[in-house]
């Protein structure tokens, strides 16, 4: 499906958005737009509620094509307009936009969208169709949305009508009714297999360069590779006999040796973990993402590095996206906000206890962690209340970031004030929310968009270090 107007790139790690090929002969409703496509080439895209909650500006991202939403979508958005979550913000922003757009017009008429290359917009009021999805599948909102799309198709048989939804099951039902259905792809990473990893291995490096790096700690990048790599990119350099860990210093424009560092009793167990700790402890890198399967040490390394740097920041914030069970919000759980969040935050506390248990109970390090929790120097914070805040002098660790949307990731980073470091950890292949996947989640989006920025570093952890049994699960099951 068409995506936002963006400049295509040949870089395999960069998302490319291209103008769609449209071959159908269509009749365009009035008023016509001043777009590049001819009147005989424009489609009608019908948007589901899930698309609006993912991106409130979605109706602006279909180029010269026309966009419609069923009246049922407006009814559903009304249920989402109150609250502090990002989805509530998205619902409110969309409602405000539609209110402004339709100030002097009727919503059931085609209204021109802003911009010379935009199409038209309308709300579909009629849900009566010859092929009734409610009779086929039952009476629910999803099926009334299907009827709205079928109604447009019936009303304008010469046009290509496409239902756009992030609900996989709704897409399948649409196709069962011979209705074209697609995912909303703006912001989606096209080549997840080629997603930026943050580290590489270079073979057959001259031995004298590796020796020079051991002696001096730095080397000119031109001696090793023909062109500079991405900023803060990590390398394992190998010669016939030797190897060394290095990274490309973005500010100095030099390859620098990476030495193993310990963080509050936690020692890296492989080269990738060494790279991750180096990025986490580097004061010049303000934004770090760590991607890897379960048991690779993502959360543990992030927590240990934050504790190691506790004197440089006023507080350490820990957060995880709350993915409600059985579609029930945390409000259904008993107790205050801390009590409600605790079931979701247990993995963070487990890692904290593991770090604490590296020391004897009577040691100052053991007591320091306890004191930090009691004095709220180290605290859990709900992401729902992050909007509007300014976070200065903190380390902010966001675990399970693959369950965030790109907009949520942007919102979190935009809250950063002076002397703040933000760390995102997660596994892009283990997603718990129904409308995200490995291509559209916020962690993948961040890795793809932020690479090659001097303030950003990313490391992909491949080797599991939790236990042999955990590795068995990841490899064989």
From TrEMBL:
Domain of life from the UniProt record: Bacteria
Segments forming domain PIN: 43-172
GO cellular component: cytosol
GO MF, one example: ATP binding
Positions of the UniProt region annotated as Disordered: 1-35
Record Gene3D superfamilies: 5'-nuclease, P-loop containing nucleotide triphosphate hydrolases
Alphabetical list of SMART domains matching this protein: PINc
UniProt KW keywords: ATP-binding, Nucleotide-binding
Family from the record: Belongs to the PhoH family. In the N-terminal section; belongs to the PINc/VapC protein family.
Protein name per the record: PhoH family protein
Organism of derivation: Pontibacter fetidus
